[in-house]
Each structure stands twice: as structure tokens, then as C-alpha cells.
Design brief:
By secondary structure, this protein is of the alpha+beta class. It has two domains: about 140 residues, Probable inorganic polyphosphate/atp-NAD kinase, domain 1 (Rossmann fold, 3-Layer(aba) Sandwich), CATH 3.40.50.10330; about 160 residues, Sandwich (Tumour Suppressor Smad4), CATH 2.60.200. About 30% of the residues lie in helices and about 35% in strands. It contains nine helices and 15 strands. The strands form three sheets. Strands 5, 6, 7, 8, 9, 12, 13, 14 and 15 form a nine-stranded antiparallel β-sheet that branches. A four-stranded parallel β-sheet has the order 2-1-3-4, sandwiched between helices. It has a two-stranded antiparallel ribbon with strand order 10-11. α3 packs parallel to α4 and α7 packs across α8. The longest helix has 16 residues.
Length: about 350
């Protein structure tokens, strides 16, 4: 682990003001006067800007300057490939760091969180990926400066964590079309929303829906669906990112996953159903079913899956579950939705 790259002392005024604000507004637990140890994990190639020459240096310089301005003791490291963010984050956890900040997309955030789930170490997020669905679900600002300010703060909340076999997801896990798109997108040189949309539109014309058996528990009832499905998705948060809302009623703190099933059909049928991602997303559509689950099982001869946009393939059966409030995340206490939205919302 490299030596800290940005270290300064917290100011006396900040030390005095934060506990006072906490006492005034009844949120003392969000504030601490002790200096925090912060690790920052940067994915230098995430998102549309990740392919620009010199982007890695720009991201490092940005984090160094923001950490120094906040008076934070920060250790900054760069990822060099898939899985590296988890390894770096595990080192931070083992060394007793208070916060690990992920600067990247949903995949980078997922890798960092793998090391943090169930520990006192808190996740910070500076979104700079292709979709940034979790950041949108947490209502984090799109501005890197403002997002970093929150990530370096003492404010936190606890969110649910979804499980797919021995993997976790924070935002959305899917089986079928969205996973196939994620696999194609991973091989593209063009990142960002445009590259993702191109991958999806192109694949829709040739994608063959597979046969699944889906069992899930909602309350005391067990639900079963069999047949060819275009998509089987489990949402912890509401959006894929880039304005595509899969499960508008999803909450990160209700201990429940939203289930979305889409029937097989022609490409034109799927494009028509897909309008619900962008327009009246909570309204019904023919061939689309919504439900809720605390646990589920999906059976299939071949299961092309993804967790937070990272694709993988298994066969047989896959168990899905949720761990309520298993991860601490830096965010404004007024931003995260703690209940499911009402019809008026």
C-alpha cells in the first residue's frame, strides 16, 4: 500500500462546528470529531472520459486537491484491472480505515463494497461511470466536487445489499437481456451511455430469450413463473442509470428486492415495453410483471447474469437474497429514500 498522498490536519473550527450542528439538528451520530483515515480507489478508465489521454493523472490530481482542501488524511490508489479494487479495499479494511471511496462506475463501486459489507468501514462514492445507477439511487450529486465533499464527510446511512449466489449487488442484478448487453458492452472500446445504448439496440434484433423457472417469496406467499423470459431482474435501487428507471418503487432500506420479469417477444415488442424505462416507468405494460421478494431462485440450463453491470455465466440454479442495511454509505442524511414512494410520487 503506498504512503498517503494527501495529508493535512482538520481545522479547529470544523472540529467545533460539526458536533454543534449535530446536536442542534438531532443527528449526532452522523458526526465525529476524530480525524478519519480515508482510502480512495480510482478506476482510471471508467466512463466516457476514461479513454481520454491523461485521464488517470487528472483523476489523481483531483482527489489529492479535494482531500487536502477538506483536511483529510487520504491514501490514494489506482486500479489496474478487474478485481483489483476489491483487493485494494480489503487492504484498507484490514488496516482499520474509516472510509473507502470508490471513484468509478457501478462495477468499481461493487468491487469496493465487496470488502466493506458487514464491517464498520464506510463506502464513499464519486460517480464517473457509464451509468452510475447506484449514485442516482442514493441521490448523490453528479458533480464530482460535490460528490467528493459528501464522500469525505462524516455523514452516513446504512443500505441493503443484494446477493446472487456468492456475489453481491448494490443496484441491480439481472439474468437475460441486460446481462447479455453488459457482456457485449464490456468488450467495447466506446464507454459511456452512447456505447451502452448502441450495444443494447444492436443486440435486441438477434437476442433469443431463454427458458427459466423463477421462484420467489413475497410475504408469506411463494410465486412461481416458468417460460421464456427476455429479462429477469432484481432491483435494490431504482435505476440502471442515464435516466433508465427499472423499478421506480425500489428502496435501498426496506429489506426487499423489486422483481421485474419481461416476457419473450420480438425486438419491436421489447422496444415498446422499454418505453417504461423512460416514460411513466411505474405504469403497467403488456408482457411486464413487477413484484417484490426477500429471496428467490432462478433455474435455467444457462444463466447469463450480471451484478451491477458485471457479467458472468452459470448453469443450474441461482439463489438471490438481500442483507438488510449491511453496508454503510457516505451520503447526505436528507437524500436517501427510507420508505417506498407513494402513488403521488
Amino acid at each position: 500500500m503506498p504512503a498517503p498522498t494527501a495529508t493535512t490536519k482538520a481545522t479547529t473550527s470544523s472540529t467545533r462546528i460539526r458536533p454543534l450542528l449535530g446536536a442542534l439538528f438531532g443527528i449526532e451520530r452522523y458526526y465525529s470529531i476524530a480525524p478519519m483515515r480515508v482510502g480512495i480507489v480510482i478506476n482510471p478508465i471508467s466512463g466516457r472520459r476514461g479513454s481520454r489521454p491523461g485521464e488517470a493523472s487528472r483523476r489523481r490530481a483531483f482527489t489529492e486537491s479535494r482531500a487536502a482542501a477538506a483536511g483529510t488524511n487520504a491514501t490514494i490508489v489506482m486500479t489496474d484491472g478487474p478485481g483489483h479494487a476489491r483487493i485494494l479495499s480489503q487492504t484498507f479494511v484490514d488496516q482499520g480505515y474509516d472510509t473507502v471511496i470508490a471513484m468509478g462506475g457501478d462495477g468499481t463501486v461493487n468491487e469496493v463494497a465487496q470488502a466493506l459489507v458487514g464491517t464498520p468501514t464506510t463506502l464513499g462514492i464519486v460517480p464517473c461511470g457509464s451509468g452510475d445507477g447506484l449514485a442516482r439511487g442514493l441521490r448523490l450529486p453528479a458533480s464530482p466536487e460535490r460528490a467528493m465533499e459528501i464522500a469525505l464527510s462524516s455523514s452516513f446511512t446504512a443500505i441493503d445489499v443484494g446477493t446472487v449466489g456468492d456475489r453481491i449487488f448494490l443496484n441491480i442484478a439481472g439474468i437475460g437481456f441486460d446481462a447479455a448487453v453488459a457482456r457485449v458492452f464490456a468488450g467495447r472500446s466506446q464507454r459511456g451511455a452512447v456505447g451502452y445504448v448502441k450495444s443494447g439496440v444492436s443486440l435486441a434484433w438477434t437476442y433469443a430469450a431463454a427458458h427459466y423457472e423463477v421462484n420467489w417469496h413475497t410475504g408469506d406467499a411463494e410465486m412461481v413463473r416458468q417460460g421464456r423470459k427476455f429479462l429477469v431482474a432484481f432491483a435494490n435501487a431504482s435505476t440502471y442509470g442515464n435516466g433508465a428507471v427499472l423499478a421506480p418503487a425500489a428502496s435501498l432500506q426496506d429489506g426487499v428486492l423489486d422483481v421485474v420479469l419481461v416476457e419473450a417477444g420480438t425486438a419491436l415488442q421489447q422496444f415498446w415495453r422499454g418505453r417504461r424505462l423512460f416514460w411513466r416507468s411505474g405504469s403497467p405494460a403488456h408482457g411486464l410483471e413487477r413484484s417484490r421478494a426477500t429471496r428467490a431462485t432462478v433455474h435455467g440450463s444457462t444463466l447469463v447474469c450480471h451484478v451491477d453491470g458485471e457479467a458472468f455465466e452459470v448453469s443450474g440454479a441461482l439463489e438471490i437474497g438481500v442483507r438488510p442495511r449491511a453496508l454503510r454509505v457516505r451520503t447526505s442524511p436528507l437524500r436517501v429514500r427510507t420508505t417506498r414512494p407513494t402513488a403521488a410520487e
